């Protein structure tokens, strides 16, 4: 069976990129198609036999300024020819699902979420537009009619895959709401073995993620300023300077770490703080694999991974008061490390591979 993989753009490293590497383990001969490819920013992609970018690759600066390509990415993905393949798997939160395949080719879409800036987080993106849109007001001026065009195309494109897979229950609901179609849920693969180890709990709380407005790290900083408890923040991003100015002495910032270094912090943390809404949230599962409970905002993918009283606690509102109360509640609780680690096992790479292969075999009959 000849297989091809498709991804929105190959110019960064994150959770979806880890998913692609797991797919590469399943299909090592599959080429990777994408809109633009930056080898410098995506060295992880060198494992693929070939990375095939679209015609957008020839346009100057597109590898790092993808915000300006919204109107052209639909055409880019529609321009690829997949007639030589039996199966195409698109991994996407944007336009990659819009590829066109012929009747002899099966297209499975692994949907990270319906495109955020078009649907579920549309208002947020207009309140906090990319900094480049602020620099070039012309692009912000045309963004609303462009969104209307892209919404229409996105709805049409969502009907093209033969099967759509959602990464979580909340994404499944979004697919039904915005695209009007059913989907299977297969949770993203997490390399839980990498984060298992001897639990050596310390007194600090931990937050892991990019320091951007959407992650609501500011909420955690303000809550821990109020509580006076130690908080260690791992990550970098556009909000770093502002957050450091906001934080008191009990809040410590550490830059980006390797998985091995991160595993050390997971194993020592009293709990992971998860104040944002995520489509899934791999850091929650990573913490659980290390035996560490999580204090999480009760929305999105956290509702699939958190078992209250078993591996963590929820806070109901995205506010300092609600988070503070949840931490006070957590301070009075105790958890069974074995049960926490066990709760992570259903999100392992092996489970992901088995479920996906079973689904593919069912399609092929």
UniProtKB/TrEMBL annotation:
Gene3D superfamilies registered for this protein in UniProt: Glycogen Phosphorylase B
Entry superkingdom: Bacteria
Entries under InterPro entries matching the protein: Glyco_trans_1, Glyco_trans_4-like_N, Glycosyltransferase_grp1
Annotated ranges, domain Glycosyltransferase subfamily 4-like N-terminal: 14-193
A single MF term (Gene Ontology): glycosyltransferase activity
One Pfam family named in its UniProt record: Glyco_transf_4
Record's protein name: Uncharacterized protein
Source organism: Candidatus Woesebacteria bacterium GWC1_42_13
């Amino acid at each position: 069976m000849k297989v091809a993989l498709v991804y929105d753009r190959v110019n960064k490293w994150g959770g979806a990129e880890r998913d692609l590497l797991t797919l590469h383990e399943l299909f090592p001969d599959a080429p990777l198609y994408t809109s633009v490819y930056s080898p410098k920013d995506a060295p992880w992609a060198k494992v693929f036999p070939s990375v095939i970018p679209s015609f957008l690759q020839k346009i100057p600066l597109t590898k790092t300024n993808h915000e300006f390509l919204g109107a052209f990415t639909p055409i880019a993905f529609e321009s690829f020819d997949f007639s030589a393949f039996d199966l195409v798997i698109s991994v996407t939160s944007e336009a990659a699902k819009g590829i066109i395949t012929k009747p002899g080719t099966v297209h499975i879409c692994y949907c990270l979420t319906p495109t955020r800036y078009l649907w579920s987080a549309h208002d947020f993106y207009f309140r906090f537009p990319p900094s480049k849109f602020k620099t070039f007001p012309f692009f912000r001026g045309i963004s609303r009619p462009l969104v209307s065009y892209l919404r229409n195309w996105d709805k049409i494109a969502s009907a093209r895959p033969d099967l759509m897979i959602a990464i979580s229950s909340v994404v499944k609901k979004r697919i039904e709401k915005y695209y009007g179609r059913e989907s299977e849920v297969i949770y993203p693969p997490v390399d839980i073995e990498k984060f298992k180890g001897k639990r050596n709990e310390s007194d600090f709380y931990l937050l892991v993620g990019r320091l951007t407005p959407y992650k609501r790290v500011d909420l955690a900083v303000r809550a821990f300023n109020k509580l006076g408890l130690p908080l260690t923040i791992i990550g970098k991003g556009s909000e770093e300077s502002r957050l450091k100015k906001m934080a008191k002495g009990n809040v410590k910032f550490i830059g980006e770490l390797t998985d091995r270094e991160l595993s050390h912090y997971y194993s020592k943390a009293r709990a992971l703080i998860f104040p944002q809404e995520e489509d899934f949230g791999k850091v929650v599962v990573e913490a659980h694999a290390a035996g560490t409970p999580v204090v999480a905002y009760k929305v999105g993918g956290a509702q699939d991974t958190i078992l209250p009283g078993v591996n963590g606690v929820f806070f109901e509102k995205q506010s300092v008061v609600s988070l503070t109360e949840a931490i006070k509640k957590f301070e009075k609780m105790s958890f069974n490390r074995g049960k926490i680690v066990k709760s992570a096992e259903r999100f392992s790479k092996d489970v992901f591979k088995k479920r996906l292969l079973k689904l593919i075999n069912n399609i092929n009959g």
